[in-house]
Amino acid sequence: MMMMGETWTQLGSAIASIMFFWAMLHQYFPQTLHDSILAYIHRLVNFFSPNIQIRFHEFSFEYFKRSEAYAAIKTYLSDKSSKAKNLRTEVVEDSTQSVVLSMDENEEVTDEYKGVKLRWVSKKNMAPKPSISLYPNTEDNRYYKLTFHKSHQEFVTGTYLPHVLQDGKAIRVRNLQRKLYTNNPSQNWEGYEARKWSHVAFEHPSTFDTLAIESKKKEEIMNDLTKFSKGKEYYKKIGKSWKRGYLLYGPPGAGKSSMIAAMANHLEYDIYDLELTTVKDNTELKRLLIETTGKSIIVIEDINCSLDLTGQRKKEKKKAKAEEVNDPISKLTKEEEEEERKSKVTLSGLLNFIDGLWSACGGERIVVFTTNFVEKLDPALTWRGRMYKHIELSYCCFEAFKVLAKNYLDVDSHQLFATIGHLFEETNMTPADVAENLMPKSLNEDVETCLKNLIEALERAKEEARKKAEEDVRLKAKKEEKGKQEGAQEDKEVKENGVEVVKDDKALAKM
Question: Where is this region: Disordered (predicted)?
């Protein structure tokens, strides 16, 4: 017992001496000498320690960016957090999980990978903060410390850490709620927390199962999308940027927007809805597109209308109009001048980003153009090397109708289907119009009532199409008759003018 007491006495004396030395060090030694002594002690401890430590800080020191490695490690360790005793909860707005658990400060978990045990600790630096700061203090932030035996250094750096980062990013992508982005006007790009893109949660329910198009075309598009999403190594091998262009065309209501939503849901991609009319010039367009992320679909709807600003300049239109009214010095109004300043994006600027050098920035992007009038587009835009796949979404066919009947009425067959099938062979109606007629308008409308409503709508459309065709024939005949009359009048005038010329020639001969 006396030996044990002496041991504790000596230990207490040693601790008291260390504490006294530590207090003297802080009080009487300069800060530089203090730091040097601590650094020396730290090196001495590391020399005898068999372990290696790696830190992953929350913020990088370049441009005050949040570290992607830290975010991936945090997500990876969230799956291991059940082993920790102290946890913290976080509400993540952009995640499918409303509450996410993570390690609390100074908490520790042990991970085992391929037989190697590794220790993770969550830490936080405590440094004095400035009174006012618009930026995160990189000296005062959280970090993860990884500790492992030095014999496993090559395994950790070459195998384990790539596994953690890849797995963490994959989990984060699965948990992220997909978004629908729209570009902000450039005057809102500057300032604290300014953003070039605003977003909302993307919750469109359209899928290829609910899409009203032919099954063969549907399967072809799905296979093409799946092959693209798995083609990273293939695109790298052939030396092309990992992107693909789609052109969707057809009448209004044919399902172009639903097709885009189904593509996004199939691939689990975000959507960037680019409004070209709010982009001032090619430089702004480039800055916008650079900030789009991978695994995304960039959509430019009604490209023929947007390119009215890019292909045919308004100034040229004004000049042509001035020439028509013999007013070459006609000036633009203030409103038109303002519009000119807002619309300097060119077709070449758009195309250069799509398939030029800038197209290699990022990867796994799909560019989708939509139009109601494909014949009005510039051939440079519809070139197959640029828009790899042209998809026509036309009027509803009987096969597409059956998909809509299943969606809206939950029926696979009905005695009225035969009548509807014959009408679809004789009448054009968009899937949007078909869906509107199939949708029950009250609680009293059953399946048969809705199908009869569609039949009536198809018959009306058929009758309107017949009347329009007759009117077109009548107008064509009237135009041809008018052309004949004008031609006869021109012949008569030529004949009369010829007689007058002959008379004049005879009079000149007599002179």
Answer: 464-511
